Amino acid sequence: MKVAYVTTPGGPEVLELREQPDPQPGPGQVRVRVRAAGVQPIDLAIRSGWRPGYVTDPLPPVPGNEFAGVIDAAGDGATEWQPGMEVLGFNFMGCYAEQVVVGGDQIVHKPKTMPWEVAGGFTAGAQTAEMAWEELAPTADDVVLVHAAAGNVGGFAVQLARLRGARVIGTARPENHDYLRELGAEPVDYRSGLVDQVRALAPGGVDVVLDGAGREALDATVELAKDLSRTRTLYEHERGPKVGVATLSGARSAARLDRLVRLYADGRLTALVRSTYPLGRAADAHRELEAGHGRGKIVLTMA
After folding, report:
1. For residue 178, which of 143, 218, 150, 148 has the smallest C-alpha distance?
2. Per residue in 179-209, pLDDT tens?
């Protein structure tokens, strides 16, 4: 199989198309022939040499944490899953590949109405947003602030908070404001006078904050939040806790993913794919994501 391989820590140019032996599923596992795989900020960080604090073993040289495809082999005990089934799921690394082996508890059925590109980039953003709201529990009485609201996680966060009845303010560049309005958020421009803009919409402050941007957004969070215990940052892993803003905890699960997929199938949740690249152009996909400011998701596709 072909994979996008990190030859050495560095910039996008270190991603190289290589061949590896086809993986084989063990007990309780399935092998998925991947049709699409999402590109995430954590992929860029790991490619550059960053390592999560909870990881002690060497990381695989193939990035990617989410995928969608067709099961083509099943190990002993994976009785629920059969070759030919269309699925989407998650794994820690290894998804920039034509084949992925995962446990049966890491996949769910893909709806026929969900395009492959959407399915390949659905898992991480949707689950991250929902994990945040599971911790922070926004309600119809709350004003929610989402930083980087036009991005993949942010777009899901806006919609899921609105489904809970909350009023949502979202930060984004002006060219993304119409998109945020479509999702149900009140947009503000994060580039100048952010705190004043939010206070104009919510004079009493905001109840819940999800920071998907870091840096100045974290400072604004501290200034605007009524209660820092109801804030989370996705990026400021060191500075956030020092100023009272916790990082997101929790783990992905097939049960949560299935609930989110059902919301999509029912038309209550949308997912925007802004661009796709073939696997051999993974470096270009990383370059676009590093440029920032785009809305929606970047996805790798496999022939």
Report:
1. 150
2. 999 999 999 999 889 999 999 999 999 999 9
